[in-house]
């Protein structure tokens, strides 16, 4: 299963209380910032769920 981002809940980096915490925590580089948006690179994701567990906006989940 891949991680998905709920665009309505995600504050992007500018409105994220964690200032892009998901990007900082991802050791595999599966979450990147692209034009101000948070983007998942599923080919790099190892399903560790650290991003889901730590998202301050609860915007990340499994699809």
TrEMBL record:
Domain 4Fe-4S ferredoxin-type stretches: 36-63
Signal peptide positions on this chain: none
GO molecular function, one term: oxidoreductase activity
Coiled coil: none
Ranges annotated as spanning the membrane: none
Highest taxon listed in the record's lineage: Archaea
Protein's recorded name: 4Fe-4S ferredoxin iron-sulfur binding domain-containing protein
Top-level taxonomy: Archaea, Methanobacteriati, Methanobacteriota, Methanomada group, Methanobacteria
């Amino acid at each position: 299963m891949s991680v998905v981002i709920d665009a309505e809940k995600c504050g992007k980096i500018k409105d994220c209380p964690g200032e892009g915490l998901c990007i900082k925590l991802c050791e595999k580089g599966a979450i990147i910032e692209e034009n101000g948006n948070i983007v998942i690179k599923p080919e790099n994701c190892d399903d560790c769920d650290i991003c889901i567990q730590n998202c301050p906006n609860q915007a990340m989940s499994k699809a």
